[in-house]
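In line with agreed milestones, the collection of sequences with tokenised folds has grown. One record among many is set out beneath this paragraph:
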Amino acid sequence: MLEAHLRFEWAAHAVRAPGLLAAVQETIGEAVAVENTFLMIKWPGREFRVPWHQDGTNRRMQLDPARSVAAWLAITDATTANGCLQVNPGSHASGYLGNDREASSARRGRALRVQGMPNGPHDHGLWLPLDAGQACLMDVRLLHRSDSNTTAGARIGLNIRYVAPGAIRSSGVHSPSLYPLTGSSW
């Protein structure tokens, strides 16, 4: 569900959580806005593999990695069994890679994926299990993915893209609507 921070009061509070916001400010500076949020629910027993992708680029825009950061907040526990993130450490150093839409008929839609990467675990991948309430910050170029949920309960996470002023390089006429949290440069 797109723009969860605009639809749910709890998500609007979550993007402002003091510990999370302090870590974001330490990473990209004092002036911070939310560029996007996405609520990811992996229901039990449903095929829902998310392919390798990077959060900072799509057909409409590209984020400056020095002025942006991606956060993944576990709303429920995220384990390897229920589809926690797998990251490819150091992959951000390759910069933005070519991407396209996956060939999928999944009801969730066709996810953006990095071209040429198989949709499965990577030998050098690192699993990031998180307890409910924990979050991780990622370079917006870091390759990451997740598997389906094979447990009996739902796995819920909130993806957040934070930006500082000047972080967004738009393609064409796209003009993102930002949700300023701190600073007056907006």
User: Anything to note?
Assistant: The radius of gyration is 16 Å. The longest strand covers residues 32-42. The CA atoms of residues 33 and 181 lie 5 Å apart. The first helix runs from residue 4 to 7.
